[in-house]
Specification:
By secondary structure, this protein is of the alpha+beta class. Helices cover about 20% and strands about 20% of the residues. Strands 2-1-3-4-5 form a five-stranded antiparallel β-sheet. Strand 3 and strand 4 form a beta hairpin. The longest helix has 13 residues. The termini are far apart.
Length: about 160
């Protein structure tokens, strides 16, 4: 899955944020502390797996207007899709997947695009932050181990990394 465009409206400090020219390879986002990097990552996670419950610090309530919502334009297997997540009053929000021609797909399409990857391995293997790096024990979670080629018995030998601030 390649992210082509990110539009976030409402999470934390981001109101009507458009990131239009993402590289098909790695994209690096630099900003000072409290610049919105973790909020952006949380939005991408939420677009794919649903918003966190109200009161959860990872929910990133809107600070500058907007409401929870936005979309990801992606490409995978030679096709273009839009994954849109809207705040519909439920904790997770409504997800809509459309093709490049505007046709809407059934609800299970997102699962298929994610190749059945669930939230836990995604957050610990594909889109991890400082918190996940500080908890290497999450690599032993059964759902995560299936996404790491070497996460069998060898993963148990990993020791927590000491960080200095």
């Amino acid at each position: 899955m390649i992210f082509r465009r990110i539009h976030a409206d409402g999470p934390g400090i981001w109101h009507d944020l458009n990131l239009d020219e993402l590289s098909p390879g790695p994209n690096v986002f630099l900003s000072p502390n409290e610049g919105g990097k973790s909020t952006l990552m949380a939005f991408v996670r939420a677009a794919l797996f649903g918003f966190k419950r109200r009161g959860d610090p990872q929910r990133y309530e809107p600070l500058r207007g907007g409401r929870h919502g936005g979309f990801l334009d992606i490409s995978t297997e030679g096709r273009e899709y839009r994954i849109e997540r809207k705040d519909d009053g439920t904790s997770r929000g409504e997800v809509i997947v459309t093709g490049s021609d505007g046709s809407e797909f059934p609800p299970g399409k997102l699962d298929s695009l994610l190749r059945r990857t669930t939230e836990t391995p995604y957050e610990n293997v594909f889109a991890f932050g400082r918190d996940e790096l500080q908890r290497l024990d999450t690599l032993q979670h059964a759902a995560v181990a299936g996404h790491l080629p070497s996460a069998g018995p060898q993963a148990r030998a990993l020791q927590p990394v000491r960080t200095h601030t």
